[in-house]
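Input (structure):
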């Protein structure tokens, strides 16, 4: 059955051997150089948002430089502290699961009758992480500036305790930003997890101490409990503390049933009373204080529970496949991901490699949006099991499932474009590794074709 479906894919000529039969230089020409530059991954909306936030902070700095410069006498600590708190409030809020789901709900609520260019822009909602990066970086720089102001004031006005506290705080934030650099984060992921999690917790605690000391200094000996609990600073810190704790209030250890069709992949089934929506992800851990990994939820129509497809991609996933656990930790709520943007389009092409089929599955199974699948993977039946492949072919009889063991690596740009053209689709969604995803998104968007893919910022 699988070979028959593969022969029929992308062609009306049933004698063609496979998807490979019609691969060729059929792509339209790229648009002008300025358009291509604008669509370059370096200028993706994520980076544009980060730069935009930083530019707003720079503008604010120059507008108020007379009051906040460390080289002037009219120093206004409260003004700088305000902007520090505002930046970190934005950075923390935008990362909350409820906020993320709300952003996706708003962005994907528009009618498919609206212009494609508008819906294309709405589909980039998953780049919201740029706001987090821009705000976190700006807040940290402002804290460094605050530290410089306190250095100037500490000997004369008794700000020495606050200075040393903000100095240590600055070092912690600098460590977090350093380990969060993409290359270091990828190479030392476990270290990144530990440094950012515990570093941010310590950072929040230090904010509490800093604010209390600051309020004592500006109120001298007149700081009362009423003034403390009604201070905007304190109320903001209460809010940020609540947001930090909230996902952990939903921490639970749940039973899991895991099947391993091969040594490369595990299919984990959960049924603990939560039915996630298609296009969402769940965070898993074996040790909740060390590391967490997010995987796409695969809810089954008319069935309880949901599945996660986990491929061998490192020590954690390898251990999970080799030493199957009976329980795993989960926290927070199912959170929307890039796949949700399919609602904005009349027809979409899903392009996946290997275990990237996992995030595609819930959308293919529910069939809420007409779609066509292009999936390149090692021997699919041997790697992922007969049941999974048959389930895909049942809902996607015209899918192009490319067996890389038999045919080698395909030109996915050509395959995806053929599917896009033949299916008369409006957009392409790619779920693959970082290099290939960014390549496909750029190749299509530089030609004026809406394309979307993960940006590895979570």
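Output (sequence):
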């Amino acid at each position: 059955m699988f070979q028959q479906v593969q022969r029929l894919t992308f062609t009306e000529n049933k004698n063609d051997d496979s998807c490979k039969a019609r691969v060729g230089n059929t792509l339209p020409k790229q648009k002008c150089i300025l358009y291509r530059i604008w669509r370059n991954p370096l200028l993706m909306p994520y980076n544009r948002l980060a730069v935009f936030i930083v530019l707003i902070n720079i503008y604010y700095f120059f507008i108020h430089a007379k009051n906040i410069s460390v080289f002037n006498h009219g120093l206004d600590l409260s003004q700088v502290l305000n902007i520090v708190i505002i930046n970190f409030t934005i950075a923390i809020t935008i990362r909350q699961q409820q906020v993320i789901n709300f952003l996706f709900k708003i962005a994907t609520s528009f009618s498919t009758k609206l212009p494609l260019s508008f819906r294309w822009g709405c589909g980039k909602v998953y780049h919201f992480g740029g706001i987090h990066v821009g705000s976190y970086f700006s807040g940290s720089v402002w804290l460094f500036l605050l530290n410089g102001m306190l250095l100037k004031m500490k000997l004369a006005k008794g700000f020495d305790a606050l200075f040393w506290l903000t100095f240590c705080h600055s070092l912690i934030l600098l460590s977090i930003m350093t380990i969060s650099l993409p290359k270091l984060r990828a190479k030392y992921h476990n270290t990144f997890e530990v440094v950012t999690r515990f570093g941010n917790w310590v950072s929040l605690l230090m904010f509490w101490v800093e604010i209390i000391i600051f309020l004592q200094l500006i109120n001298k000996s007149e700081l009362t409990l009423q003034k403390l609990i009604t201070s905007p600073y304190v109320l903001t810190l209460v809010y940020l503390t609540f947001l930090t704790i909230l996902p952990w209030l939903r921490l639970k250890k749940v039973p899991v049933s895991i099947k391993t069709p091969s040594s490369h992949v595990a299919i984990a089934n959960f049924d603990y009373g939560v039915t996630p929506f298609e296009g969402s992800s769940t965070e898993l851990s074996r040790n909740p204080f060390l590391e967490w990994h997010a995987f796409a939820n695969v809810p089954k129509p008319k069935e309880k529970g949901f599945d996660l497809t986990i491929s061998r991609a490192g020590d954690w996933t390898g251990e999970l496949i080799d030493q199957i656990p009976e329980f795993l930790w989960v926290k927070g709520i199912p959170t929307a991901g890039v796949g949700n943007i399919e609602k904005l389009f009349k027809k979409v092409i899903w392009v996946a490699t290997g275990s990237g089929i996992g995030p595609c599955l819930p959308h293919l199974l529910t069939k809420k949006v007409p779609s066509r699948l292009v999936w390149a993977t090692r021997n699919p039946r041997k790697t992922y099991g007969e049941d999974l492949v048959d389930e895909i072919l049942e809902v996607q009889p015209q899918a192009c499932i490319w067996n890389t063991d038999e045919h080698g690596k395909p030109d996915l740009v050509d395959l995806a474009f053929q599917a896009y053209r033949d299916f008369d689709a409006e957009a392409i969604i790619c779920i693959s590794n970082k290099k290939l995803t960014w390549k496909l998104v750029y190749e299509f968007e530089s030609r004026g074709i809406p394309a979307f893919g993960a940006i590895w910022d979570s």
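Notes: Confidence is low (pLDDT under 50) at residues 1-18. Residues 189-219 form the longest helix (31 residues).
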